Amino acid sequence: MRFDFASDNVAGMAPEALEALARHNDGYARAYGGDDPARQAAELIRQRLDADVEVRFVFSGTAANAISLSMLAFPFEAVLAHHAAHVCTDETGAPGFFGQGVGLIGLPGHSGKIDPAALKAALSEPDMGHRQPAAALSLTQATEYGAVYSVEELADLVAPAKARGLGVHLDGARLANAAAAGFDLTAVGRMGVDVLVMGGAKAGGLCTEALVMFDRSLARRVDNRLKQAGQMASKGRFLSAPFLGLLETGAWERRAAHANAMASRLADAVEARTPWVLAHPVDANAVFVRMPADAHARLNAAGWACHRFDDGSVRLVCSWATTAEAVDEVAEAMTRLS
């Protein structure tokens, strides 16, 4: 079985990340996140975002999201998010676990983007003692369906949430792909996002995500929170060094641009060579295909691992390591099956 397109998690570390890991393996370093790679990577993140932020490196996107949301909502409150967002569909209740009961309210919208009208309706709901009121908004960039919000689209969601006093979280597991697609990273802080999860794992890093706090008050005792949650690595340099390698070389954006280009190549082949249609815009590194169940089964049987997603389409994800040859091979296999 070939896993080239099963996820962008299936690829190994990008050379820049691996080289930095090996380089910072030499000698001794401060433990528990006090290492030089963490300090240097945090500074590069501040430069990318053009913001004075607090940064911590954790080794789970799920924990990073859940801890972020637990900072923004009390246990008797809830978080608004797209109903297909990772926090709603793929984290096994982690926001409620880390938030000691924090709830989730799913909102509709095409291609993983929250419908502004749906958000407006949710924000206008009166508080009641019998249900959890919304205290935070969670957004995803790029979305679970591979769409990229424009700066204006995101700002139009953040502004009414902030006006109602909600905190705002941005899940940026694929933020590198959004940046490579033209999204302005410096807009994140300016529009009022309180906490960002800046992805490293899917960008070619080890398993590291950066917990970025624009609202620096959220950093009060954050290290205690991370320690309790099992997210403070003793040898923290092995989390931060790969992230540093990606940022200091520009590979974080460059490798994401390659993944996006491979997704565009695959999408073009699907449209040109098969009768199937694309279910969502190909803005980033994922391609969603409306493929019959029997064709999907035969594609898997032919040795190509790819998954049917929540909306019934089949998802193929390109990574930093995806080759043009692999794209052409899977496209040829799909052509034979169509």
Structure description:
- This protein is of the alpha/beta class.
- The protein has two domains: 15-250, Aspartate Aminotransferase, domain 2 (3-Layer(aba) Sandwich); 252-337, Alpha-Beta Complex (Aspartate Aminotransferase, domain 1).
- The chain has 14 helices and eleven strands.
- It has helices at residues 15-23, 36-49, 61-72, 86-89, 94-98, 116-123, 151-163, 175-180, 187-190, 222-228, 237-249, 251-273, 293-301, 324-337; strands spanning 54-58, 78-82, 103-107, 134-140, 167-172, 195-199, 209-213, 277-278, 286-290, 307-308, 314-317.
- The chain has a seven-stranded mixed β-sheet, with helices on both faces. It has a four-stranded antiparallel β-sheet with strand order 8-9-11-10.
- Helix 6 packs parallel to helix 7 and helix 12 runs parallel beside helix 14 (324-337).
- It is globular, with a radius of gyration of 20 Å.
- It starts with 14 loop residues before the first helix and ends with a helix.
- The model has no long low-confidence stretch (mean pLDDT 97).
Low-confidence stretches: none
Separation, N- and C-terminal Cα atoms: 20 Å
CATH class group of the largest domain: Alpha Beta
Number of helices: 14
Sheet of most strands: 7 strands, mixed
What level of helicity do the residues show?
40-55%
Strand arrangement within the widest β-sheet reads 1-7-6-5-4-2-3
Domain module count:
2
Structural class: alpha/beta
Query: Care to count the β-strands?
Result: 11
Beta content comes to 15-25%
Globally, the shape reads globular
CATH topology-level name of the largest domain: Aspartate Aminotransferase, domain 2
The quaternary organization reads as single chain
Please give the radius of gyration in angstroms: 20 Å
CATH 2nd-level architecture of the largest domain: 3-Layer(aba) Sandwich
CATH H-level superfamily title of the largest domain: Type I PLP-dependent aspartate aminotransferase-like (Major domain)
Order of helices and strands: HHEHEHHEHEHEHHEEHHHEEHEEH
Please tell me the overall pLDDT.
97
